[in-house]
Amino acid sequence: MLSWLLLIVLLAAFVVLGVWFWGSVFGRGELLEPLDPQETLEANRHAVGAGRIDDVQFELVPRGYRPEQVDDVIAHLTWRLNEAEEQLSRLSPEKID
After folding, report:
1. Residue 72: CB partners within 8 Å, gap ≥ 6?
2. Does one domain contain both 15 and 62?
3. CA distances from residue 19 to 23, 26, 40, 55, 89 in whole angstroms, order as listed
């Protein structure tokens, strides 16, 4: 019985020492600097305008992405869609049903 108790105490001590050592060697991780909101909006608008949807970036916040950045990209995509529909309607004036 005493050997089991000693084993559990030693295991707990090794876990505590291991966590401390791992944290001192590797640290808590690097935090990213916050993105510039205006620069991010412009970069996203440029990416959407050029058709490079994979280049769109959003800043992470505790509950997902920053809503104003997402809303701006959706608004810009809607604007581009309306612009494309206008160009199509100018090219083919008759409606196809």
Report:
1. 41, 44, 45
2. no
3. 6, 10, 38, 38, 65
d(CA 58, CA 35): 9
Of 26, 15, 59, the residue nearest 40 (C-alpha): 59
Tokens found for residue 40? 């991010």
**Cβ atoms of 58 and 66 closer than 8 Å:** yes
- When divided into structural domains, the chain yields a total of 2
pTM of the model: 0.53
> Which residues span the domain enclosing 53?
33-92
Write out pLDDT tens, residues 6-21: 999 999 999 999 999 9
The reply to whether 57 and 19 lie within a common domain is no
